[in-house]
From TrEMBL:
Protein's name in the database: SRPBCC family protein
Lineage of origin: Bacteria, Pseudomonadati, Bacteroidota, Sphingobacteriia, Sphingobacteriales
Top-level lineage group: Bacteria
Organism of provenance: Mucilaginibacter gossypiicola
InterPro entries in alphabetical order: START-like_dom_sf
Length: 131
């Protein structure tokens, strides 16, 4: 399993950050420009990555104010799990976004850079949206 992480701190209450992330309708605001054909509900999102693949993801687990776990809703090109881990520290919320992907050696060479960029982009977009 290959792991890509990005962490930030936001000067917002834990509940506000959790409620935003717990609704997949809000995640479109976190996606990079190459994400197209976005459709979502509170629990599931479908989209395509320009010139690459179509994905369907669903929120598999919610632990109030702690964790949101996202997995594929349909068979993806490779096994994938996304996790938002949250904790409150004094006056700000600490956030760790993790992408776990089961990549072959060839896929690792092709996808490692884009997956790390995605992790960084999502956390930075979250900071921008909630600030």
């Amino acid at each position: 399993m290959n792991t890509f992480t990005s962490s930030i701190s936001i000067n917002k209450p834990l509940t506000e950050v959790y409620n935003f992330l717990a609704d997949f309708n809000n995640h479109k605001q976190l996606m990079p420009d190459n994400i197209q054909e976005w459709t979502s509900t509170r629990d599931e999102a479908r989209f395509s990555i320009q010139n690459m693949a179509k994905l369907a993801l669903k929120i598999d687990e919610r632990i109030a104010n702690e964790l949101i776990r996202i997995i594929p809703a349909e068979k993806p090109p490779f096994d994938l799990e996304l996790k938002w881990s949250l904790s409150f520290n004094n006056d700000h919320t600490d956030i760790l976004f993790t992408i776990n992907a089961e990549l072959s050696m060839m896929m690792k060479m092709l996808a490692s850079g884009p997956l790390q960029k995605l992790a960084d982009h999502e956390t930075q977009s979250l900071l921008n949206v909630l600030s």
